[in-house]
């Protein structure tokens, strides 16, 4: 693994560690219950999945429409 690969994995690790620290701070310092944090996490993941699915459907329709119109020419 080259130098660029190590930087990539280091950046990913540091980002995940920073996010974990923010969640810990929200729970510990501000008294937000773990259950509420888990609920927020699940809602966020669901919304991201919906956005990805909508994007995939849009791209699929776009490519299908392009292919359909190109074949008629």
Q: Could you give the distance between the termini?
A: 49 Å
- Mean pLDDT over all positions: 89
Question: Helical amount among residues, as a percent range?
Answer: over 70%
The domain count comes to: 2
Q: How many strand elements?
A: 0
Major sheet characteristics: none
* Contiguous runs where pLDDT drops below 50 for at least 5 residues: none
Shape: flat
Q: Output the number of helix runs.
A: 2
As a whole number of angstroms, the C-alpha radius of gyration is 21 Å
Structural class: mainly alpha
The arrangement of helices and strands along the chain is: HH
Transmembrane segments: 12-32, 38-65
Keywords: Membrane, Transmembrane, Transmembrane helix
Descriptors:
single chain, mainly alpha, 2 domains, 2 helices, flat, membrane, transmembrane
Report what the structure shows.
The protein has 73 residues and is an all-alpha fold. It has helices at residues 3-28, 34-72. The chain is built from two helices and no strands. The N and C termini lie far apart (49 Å).
Q: How is this structure best summarized?
A:
This protein is mainly α. The chain has two domains: about 1-30; about 35-70. The chain has helices at about 5-30, 35-70.
């Amino acid at each position: 693994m080259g130098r660029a690969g190590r930087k990539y994995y280091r950046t990913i690790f540091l980002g995940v560690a920073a996010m974990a620290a923010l969640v810990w701070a929200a729970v510990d310092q501000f008294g937000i219950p773990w259950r509420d944090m888990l609920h927020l996490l699940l809602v966020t993941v669901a919304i991201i999945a919906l956005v990805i699915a909508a994007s995939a459907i849009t791209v699929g329709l776009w490519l299908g429409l392009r292919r359909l119109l190109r074949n008629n020419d």
